């Protein structure tokens, strides 16, 4: 059942928009339950109104803000770090900060592969420079593929908070219903496992990647606003 690890790519583009996606990444006094700390990654879970839990992952690494967006938009590289992603295709970019994406995730026979269509957009707070990426369902933009099961009930948000010395905190929140006859306990376990493995890969690929030092128009890097040692 390793195919359930697809859940994190919510990152890439995924998910049905929810007001919960706008929640901050604070855990003190919240309903988030700590799952584990490993490889400089903090993993949490939270009970939701549905049978599938919400998941949150946080890490701190060296990176530009723009580099994270460039990595997400490099669809050919997606399967190399997003758990169980087979193919990610950009369908449209109606605005500079918006993407319409189709993602396909592997599943072992006889289970049909999963896919999803998402519309994502990012915005940056001009004062704090915090960058927020929200992804919403856009299934109506592409007819269903008979050989695949389209994911339902998914949502996610990414919050990128810059710190001195080019440190960047990346916080992900999301959830996904695998669809089909999958036990909820297994879906919850694999949701956590998939999120964690994707963050492990993210930490390996982003800091020293080709995406660094390539500022995107509309994204302000904190070089001058948050000097080293501030």
Automatic annotation (TrEMBL):
UniProt-listed InterPro entries: START-like_dom_sf (IPR023393), START_dom_prot (IPR028347), START_lipid-bd_dom (IPR002913), START_lipid_transfer (IPR051213)
GO CC entries: cytoplasm
Pfam families: START (PF01852)
Domain START: 32-211
Coiled-coil annotated spans: none
Keyword Calcium recorded: no
GO MF annotations, alphabetized: lipid binding
Top-level taxon: Bacteria
Signal peptide: 1-23
Presence of keyword Coiled coil: no
Keywords: Signal
Protein name: START domain-containing protein
